[in-house]
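Work Package 4 report. The design task specified in the project plan requires that, given a folded chain encoded as structure tokens, an amino acid be chosen for each position. We show below one input record used in the internal validation round.
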């Protein structure tokens, strides 16, 4: 038995020797195959790691998904993650920021990629040079040492230039991306491709707006037509900038580490053998899978941080906008509580994120730096403790050179792989910014198509009201007729409140119309339909183009710029000159509203002020009337536009507008305006209205009689009390 066992052992040893000889003979080919397999594995693992994630969490996957990633039956937004929805959104935005292979952005990416390869090549060369420097020290060869130091200094020139220029190109890319996105967003946001249909005026339909009515000291607040975007100003200025910077950095943060992993490990495999590299890869991937499973949802955190920061900014902007009303109402305490509540929400979220980043950073450093470092030391020790096939004996200096070079390559490779892992966090943050920017673009696109999403009032669920909200009316723009006609048009607010189920009337150009009624009955809503600001839910509207209307509200808008700009807004000085109008003509217009002295008082037409603070309420209304006379439209919409000017000035402006051929559509409760209007549209506040001719003298007489009767009726209780006292005697 012993002899048989010995024979078998010798036979096995002989077979192993034959296999080893065959392996050594075929080792160069095997090494190449292993290296190619490693490169394919790294690329495939990186690709799968960033693309094969589910679109939604498992709990939400049970619900029916809409095409845009939102859940039906749920008001919560979809979870932000690196998933199929993120890549779909990113591809759409990439087609915007990189419009073609010949674009400057594509050329900068090519230049950026070339510099990344150059930097990696320099790093590989420096690793080998580092080993040579240490080897020359161990061998005590001063000439070789100083020669290597000279090479070290010379390679620093392209290395420092490459690193600096990489940062420069990356920042240039971020600016280029931001410019592309900002130009597109501003074109859609402030552009007006079709001012008569649902397209155009996206900024109006998206933003919150305020219309003040100083009737009975009441202020009416109206919401936007679409409430998906709460703070578009922040998204346009802040989120696009953060997205552009993150997108420009993600390419470098992802492409460079992947390239480093491949090149460093290829060079390392040449020194220690591809077998050890494969073993190291297996160990690293196992620990990387653990690290990936522990990664928090940084994309959701980023999106929520931007949203909370926008809410805090919005609360401060509201405080500045309504400072006067808050001061009069002594609402400092209430506003302070609201702002502090928003800030506390931001702080709580940021603290939560910091805690998650802290423990994850601890785990990440422990695995990436220390565990992977120990794996690397074992790999570097292979050429020292084991003789590799085909290697000849080397001295201490050679072993030192090999160890230092391999150690340098391994550290660089480990750092690169760690950056690949860390880049998932960068990609998660990019997913958060992508979700915000994509939401802005998608919402603006829907608004252009007339698709609004809005939280409706409870009355909108009533069957008859719901039927009205589902309908769409017709707006006919007439270039040949200057008349206005409403035929069975419902008046509906953006939140679904039906103010009037059917409105029908017709006025001819030159017939001034007075609109009266209680607050909130739909007087101003009529003007928004005429201006093409609100959709028509039914019936037919026939009107001139929107350019035929100018609105003068109670608190007119004064733009940033010169005094001249306030009168000719939105025209520029060049457009004014093209119309043949001079500063002298503007002075004549200001003289009509008794504001010609403001030119000298403020320092000339080119004086620049914060005009909303420099002018009184009455002066602002006069400037708005001067603007009306400058543009001379067919119709003027006056919404309490003379509430802050004297009665004689009010009459003078009304008469001058009539002389210019401007038809007035006026909302006002002042009896002094009745005589300037031929027709009246009277809302009763209960869903009804009366449209008829206005007999100012008769109506004024009736108003006087009504006031007299009301005065007498107010005395009745006192008279009855006095009669009761007299009967007691």
């Amino acid at each position: 038995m012993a002899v048989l066992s010995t024979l078998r052992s010798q036979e096995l040893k002989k077979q192993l020797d034959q296999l080893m000889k065959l392996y050594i003979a075929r080792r160069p080919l095997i090494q190449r195959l292993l290296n190619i397999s490693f490169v394919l594995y790294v690329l495939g693992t990186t690709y799968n790691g960033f693309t094969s994630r589910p679109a939604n969490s498992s709990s939400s996957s049970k619900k029916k998904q809409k095409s845009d990633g939102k859940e039906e039956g749920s008001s919560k937004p979809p979870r932000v993650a690196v998933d199929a929805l993120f890549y779909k959104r990113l591809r759409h935005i990439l087609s915007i920021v990189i419009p073609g292979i010949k674009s400057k952005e594509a050329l900068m990416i090519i230049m950026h990629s070339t510099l990344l390869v150059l930097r990696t090549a320099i790093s590989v060369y420096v690793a080998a040079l580092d080993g040579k420097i240490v080897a020359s020290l161990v061998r005590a060869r001063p000439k070789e040492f100083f020669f290597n130091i000279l090479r070290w200094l010379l390679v620093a020139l392209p290395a420092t230039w490459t690193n600096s220029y990489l940062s420069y190109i990356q920042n240039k890319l971020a600016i280029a991306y931001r410019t592309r996105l900002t130009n597109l967003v501003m074109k859609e946001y402030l552009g007006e491709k079709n001012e008569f249909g649902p397209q155009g005026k996206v900024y109006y339909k998206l933003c919150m707006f305020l219309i003040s009515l100083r009737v009975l000291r009441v202020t009416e607040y109206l919401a936007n037509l679409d409430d998906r975007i709460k703070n578009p100003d922040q998204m346009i200025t802040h989120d696009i900038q953060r997205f552009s910077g993150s997108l420009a950095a993600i390419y470098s943060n992802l492409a460079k580490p992947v390239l480093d992993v491949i090149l460093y490990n290829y060079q390392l495999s040449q020194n220690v053998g591809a077998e050890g590299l494969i073993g190291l890869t297996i160990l690293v991937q196992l620990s990387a899978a653990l690290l990936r499973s522990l990664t928090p949802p940084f994309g959701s955190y980023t999106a929520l941080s931007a949203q909370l920061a926008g809410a805090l900014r919005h609360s401060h902007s509201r405080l500045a906008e309504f400072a006067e009303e808050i001061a009069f109402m002594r609402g400092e305490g209430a506003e302070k509580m609201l702002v502090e509540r928003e800030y506390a929400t931001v702080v709580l979220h940021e603290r939560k994120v910091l805690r998650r980043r802290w423990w994850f950073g601890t785990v990440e450093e422990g695995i990436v730096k220390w565990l992977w470092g120990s794996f690397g030391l074992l790999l570097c020790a292979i050429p020292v403790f084991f003789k590799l096939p085909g290697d000849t004996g080397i001295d201490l200096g050679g072993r030192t050179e090999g160890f230092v070079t391999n150690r340098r390559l391994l550290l660089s490779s480990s750092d690169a792989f760690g950056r690949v892992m860390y880049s998932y966090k960068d990609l998660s943050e990019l997913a958060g910014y992508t979700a915000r920017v994509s939401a802005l673009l998608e919402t603006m696109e829907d608004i252009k198509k007339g698709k609004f999403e809005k939280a409706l009032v409870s009355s909108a669920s009533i069957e008859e009201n719901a039927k009205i909200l589902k309908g769409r009316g017709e707006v006919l723009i007439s270039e040949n007729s200057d008349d206005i006609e409403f035929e069975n048009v419902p008046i509906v607010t953006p939140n679904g409140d039906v103010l009037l189920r059917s409105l029908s009337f017709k006025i001819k150009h030159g017939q001034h119309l007075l609109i009266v009624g209680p607050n909130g009955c739909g007087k101003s809503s009529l003007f928004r339909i005429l201006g093409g600001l609100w959709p028509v839910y039914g019936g037919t509207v026939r009107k001139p183009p929107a350019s035929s209307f100018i609105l003068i509200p109670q608190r007119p808008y004064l733009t940033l710029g010169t005094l001249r700009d306030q009168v000719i807004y939105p025209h520029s000085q060049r457009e004014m000159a093209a119309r043949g109008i001079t500063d002298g003509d503007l002075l004549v217009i200001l003289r009509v509203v008794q504001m010609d002295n403001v030119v000298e008082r403020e320092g000339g037409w080119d004086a620049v002020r914060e005009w909303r603070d420099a002018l009184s309420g009455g002066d602002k209304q006069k400037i708005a009337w001067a603007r009306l006379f400058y543009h001379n439209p067919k119709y003027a919409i006056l919404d309490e536009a003379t509430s802050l000017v004297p009665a004689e000035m009010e009459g003078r402006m009304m008469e001058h507008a009539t002389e210019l051929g401007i038809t007035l559509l006026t909302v006002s409760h002042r009896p002094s305006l009745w005589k300037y209007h031929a027709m009246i549209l009277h809302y009763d506040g209960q869903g009804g209205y009366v449209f008829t001719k206005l007999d100012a003298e008769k109506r004024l007489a009736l108003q006087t009689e009504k006031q007299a009767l009301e005065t007498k009726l107010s005395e009745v209780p006192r008279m009855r009390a006095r009669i009761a006292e007299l009967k007691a005697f």
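Confidence is low (pLDDT under 50) at residues 52-77, 193-198, 208-223. Validation will be extended to a larger panel in the next phase.
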